[in-house]
Amino acid sequence: MGTGCLVANEWICGEYLRSRASELTDATLQHVWITVVSVLLGLVVAFPLALLVRARPRFAAPVLGLTTVLYAIPSLAMFSLLLPLFGLSAALVVTGLVLYSLTILVRNILAGLAAVPEEAREAARGMGYGPARLLWEVELPLALPAVLAGVRMATVSTVALTTVGALVDYGGLGTLITTGLKSYFKAQVLTASVLCVLLAVAADLLLLGLQRLLTPWTRTGSGPAGGGRGRAGGDRGRAGAGSASGAGSGARIGKEAG
Amino acid sequence: MGAVADAWTWLTTGANWQGESGVTARLLEHLWFSGVCLLASCLIALPLALWLGHIGRGGALAVNLSNVGRAVPTLAVLVLLTLTPLGRHGDLPTIIALVLFAVPPLLTNAYVGMREVDRSVVEAARGMGMSGGQVFRRVELPLAYPLVLIGLRSATVQVIATATLAAMAGGGGLGRIITAGFNTSDTGQVVAGALVVGALALAAEGVLVLVGRLCDPMRATRLTRSPGSSKSAGPADPAAAARAMT
């Protein structure tokens, strides 16, 4: 190996890792913050939307329909279309990713809220809980497994989709992948790709840990109650909330993965 | 609204449809690798998923595969394959990357469809003396069919959308129209490209709905048993057919 692997343009190159460590770290950090900001903003937007749909069911069709249509827009087109609005900026990538995350998040929040047992609500109301306290202290904690399952799915697909941000030079590791293609730099492409997958796996495991920490009651019964391993992809046409096959079924899996 | 008008102007300009990088050529390229990819993905995923569903094994694999698939960026796979010797064979990197992308959701959906078949029906069929193969052909497959088809339809739409990424790895297809518009800051062309991709996805889904309805192994049964369709209405009642399909 040694420096020879850079000259020979090998796929795996220790010298590349050493000499470009700072470049790799910067790209990874950019990837992480774009993903984190996108998913957090996605949650901030998705919650009011889900509450609106629940309070006013006539908004269900337009909101769910719109998020589904957004999801079907090719990422390349989405980022290109946002260009006149944002210019070449990270805000462009984040906006696109937020729009994509809404489909999964809104549906999973709705599914989680719909799965709260009516008895729990009745009991809270009987104890004098107002609507806000009922939502915050009873419904949200009970919906948490489904919400977190949605956050996990959204995060993993956001990590993958962030790479397409390379189009406007804000793609984190994706930028390294596309510049590596242009200069035919194999070690850079492979390293960035592997880091990207590792990032997705690490984020998934981290959120799984958070889910277990926050919802200890789901482990006492027979297996996780809202483990998000619902039917993949099959629910696209249906309104996800209230479908029978588990909390994760509300969302459709398999967005074009970056 | 200006962008949509620009897109319309772009789409109605005949010159944009002609030549090597015109819409027609790009559309055909896009159709070619989406179609080949879907065919290959079905040939790989469906037999495996149906078999696993029939014997009731490998559930964790089948279900988790789509979760794993979501973590792998298609762009990274595309670029990696383009840099391998495969990259010298034209569309091959695009097709392989898209197959890797399409197989997991197809597999998961078909497997889940098989497992959601009512167990008591399967037991009854066995009790009637049907062999494993008969149960598969005459009970499980017809009952799982609608879900398998939904999985195929959503995979098709996603493959057509994702195939645009080939443009970022130097491949062809409709993505090239979008990236060309992006490079020249021509929003009208970008919108036009996105619209053509969307139209293609919708058309493909429409074709699959029709083909799916024609090939439905339980077409007659689903029609006569759906609520609200009287016997005299028969199989010609499109509303009943629509209800039966959903």
UniProtKB/TrEMBL annotation, chain A:
Keywords: Membrane, Transmembrane, Transmembrane helix, Transport. It is a multi-pass membrane protein. CDD domains: TM_PBP2. Pfam families: BPD_transp_1. It comes from the Bacteria. Residues 239-251 have a biased composition (Gly residues). Its main location: membrane. Signal peptide: none annotated. This is ABC transporter permease.
From TrEMBL, chain B:
Keywords: Membrane, Transmembrane, Transmembrane helix, Transport. Gene3D superfamilies: MetI-like. The chain crosses the membrane at residues 31-53, 65-86, 92-112, 143-170, 190-215. Its main location: membrane. It comes from the Bacteria. InterPro entries: ABC_transp_perm/SBD (IPR051204), MetI-like (IPR000515), MetI-like_sf (IPR035906). Pfam families: BPD_transp_1 (PF00528). Residues 27-208 form the ABC transmembrane type-1 domain. It is found in: Cell membrane; Membrane. Residues 225-240 have a biased composition (Low complexity). It is a multi-pass membrane protein. Residues 221-240 are annotated as: Disordered. PANTHER family: GLYCINE BETAINE/L-PROLINE TRANSPORT SYSTEM PERMEASE PROTEIN PROW, POSSIBLE OSMOPROTECTANT (GLYCINE BETAINE_CARNITINE_CHOLINE_L-PROLINE) TRANSPORT INTEGRAL MEMBRANE PROTEIN ABC TRANSPORTER PROZ. Belongs to the binding-protein-dependent transport system permease family. This is ABC transporter permease. It comes from Streptomyces lichenis.
